[in-house]
Amino acid sequence: MTIHQEVHLKGSPRNIYELLLDSARFQAMTGGRAAHISPHEGGEVSMFGGDIEARNVELVPNRRIVQAWRSRVWPEGTYSIVRFELQADGTGTRLTFDQAGYPRSAHAALDEGWAKMYWEPMNRALTHH
Fold it and tell me: For the Activator of Hsp90 ATPase homologue 1/2-like C-terminal domain, which residue ranges apply (predicted)?
């Protein structure tokens, strides 16, 4: 199963790239739950107070973030691949998002969760940046 979403976000690709990889900004954007995000390829990521764990697989500054990403409640060793592709689009950025390799039972929660936990808070954060 896969998730494919395309969203238009306020702010430049650079703003969005930095927001996704800056622990303090991400933590503020997501309501203050602890985030420790390595800005380096191969680096470890922990978000939402440790509920989400990830590792940066590929980082192309201001263009692409690929992470091996998992929820703490998934079976041990289960990782999905998430890909954020950023492209300047008019006054903002077109973000193309793909996720593959997650447990089937998680599909509905993930499909809704990206908008609620990422795109909407990102637009709010980028508007006030």
Answer: 12-122
Domain span at 82: 2-127
Q: Name the residue with tokens 């390595």.
A: 38
What residue type is 32 in one-letter code? G
Q: Are 2 and 82 in contact (CB under 8 A)?
A: no
Q: From CA 53, how far away is CA 129, in angstroms rounded? A: 26
Do residues 35 and 50 lie in contact, with contact meaning Cβ atoms separated by under 8 Å?
no
- Provide the number of structural domains found in the chain: 1
CA distances from 112 to 7, 22, 88, 96 (A): 13, 23, 25, 16
CATH number at residue 71: 3.30.530.20
Residue 127 pLDDT grade (very low, low, confident, very high; cuts 50, 70, 90):
confident
Residue 45: burial class (beta carbons within 10 Å; 0-12, 13-18, 19+): buried
